[in-house]
Amino acid sequence: MASGPVDNVILLVDCYKSCHYKVYPPGTTTLYSYFESRGGKFPYTVFFGLQYILKRWLCGPVVTKAMVQEAKEVIGAVFGRDDVFNEEGWNYLVEHHGGRLPLRIRAVPEGTVVPTKNVLFTVENTDPALPWLTNFFETLLVQTWYPMTVATNSRVFKQILHHYMNMTHDNLETVAFLMHDAGYRGVSSVESAALGGAAHMINFKASDTVAGSSLLRKFYHLQGVAGFSTPSSEHSTVTSWGREHELDAHRHMFQTYSKGDVGCVCDSYDIWKCLEEMWCGELKDLVLERGTRGGCVYLRPDSGDTKEVTLKCLEILEKVYETETNSKGYKVLPSCVRVVQADGVNHKTLWSTLEHLKDHGWSTYNAYFGAGSALLQQVNRDTQKCAFKVSYAEVDGRGVEVYKQPITDPGKNSKRGRLTLQREDDGTYTTIESGKGDPSKDLLVTVFENGEMVKDYTFQEIQQRAEIKPNDMDIIKFLKENEGLI
Fold first, then answer.
1. Angstrom distance (rounded) from CA 9 to CA 317
2. Helices marked H in 80-209
3. 294: alpha, beta or left, given left = phi > 0 and alpha = psi -120 to 50?
4. Which of 23, 180, 309, 420 gives 206 a disulfide partner, CB atoms 3.0 to 4.6 angstroms apart?
């Protein structure tokens, strides 16, 4: 990926971090910190994205004397004084470590689905002369919250679709294609699109955010692409023909991409007329003929009440395209035609739409969905209450358990001592504090040490870990019981 506006890692920081090296207890030689999801909207997190941050910013010689001088000038100007910046400490790092960061980072394998309130990774310095380095990079490392939260958000979408496909269809073969990432234009930056798009691809194979595949190719050993799409029209390609030539616009799209699948947006003017007179009339024979060659037309409503519009689209198509009843007792359109609902889709509207279709005898198999901002942008660090805290220090050769315990918010209490993450015999996860865990059972793996990647995950490994398992929690029940999420 191209360089960003800031390439000096010393400046990838909340600037107040620059003053902290002076205010740890005298004699401090070790600081050990951890990152966790303290709770939040969903009951678990899909851990993902740390490897990108490490490879992108922290691997190899990342600090030079020139960077130290630049940072000295910038930090001095920010504070308006020359006694804040740690010039000596950074120069020591360059001279004694060749610009590599003497840190050890241990993390749960990426793609692991971990219940909240458990440690996800730990960080500690390996050079006793640089204990402040551990928390200096909190700012950058905590940004793992974004890809991790999108991966979690996306997996909940998948669980909802999996739930309804299991109830209303004969198999689950198409689940991985039922939620399309349409969020590229709605995110805050190209990097957000790449990280969020990649996170969604852990769970689904449908995406227009090609930046996600680009990131995975560079940082996660992906061969090819992870997200797939199909030629599809947009409103401009229909409305540029003029209202009186809408039929010609659809026919032209359909004939231009005459093989395989094709998508057509239908609500540029009157969606009901478009479906009834065009796709169920003038264009019907073309649709059926394409079906004999294995192709499908995906008809897309893009406005109105999500659940009512989706149902009405199916009911209009049913009048002309003969449905069958599957083994679960639900109606299925022929394979040549499907509805794609990509307007206003979030967890709540997806659930209500699928429930509405089920109640009216329709299999989830008939409908595909797309999400944009609800998938990639309507999340923040507090969605899963992500936090990075010191839990252990060594001062004058003595180990010290470090913790916070704010009287005003017990939810922000932090963990103490060195931590291990263990999975018990019953499948539950437990974070053992105060160094009392069994190292042989620790799920945390050293992924980074002294400026080098020690463990390098492939995207395929990550996908396999995040797969929905038979013993996954009932996400529908959880969402109903918690804050009216559905």
1. 57
2. 87-97, 133-136, 138-141, 145-168, 190-201
3. left
4. 180
Q: Of 299, 237, 245, nearest to 272 (Cα)? A: 299
Q: What is the pTM of this model?
A: 0.96
Work out the angle at residue 45's Cα, subtended by the Cα atoms of residues 40 and 48, and round it to the nearest 5 degrees. Answer: 130
- Determine how many CB atoms are found less than 10 A away from the CB of residue 323: 18
Burial class (CB in 10 A: 0-12, 13-18, 19+), 445: middle
Of 252, 194, 257, the residue nearest 48 (C-alpha): 194
Task: Express the helix, strand and coil content of the chain in percent, nearest 5 each.
Answer: 40, 20, 40
Residue-wise pLDDT for 365-401, tens only, equals 999 999 999 999 999 999 999 999 999 999 999 999 9
Structural domains of the chain, ranges and CATH numbers in brackets: 9-136+391-455 (3.20.140.10), 149-376 (3.20.20.70)
In sign, the C-alpha dihedral spanning 206, 211, 215, 218 is positive
The DSSP bridge pattern shows strands 429-432 and 420-423 to be: antiparallel
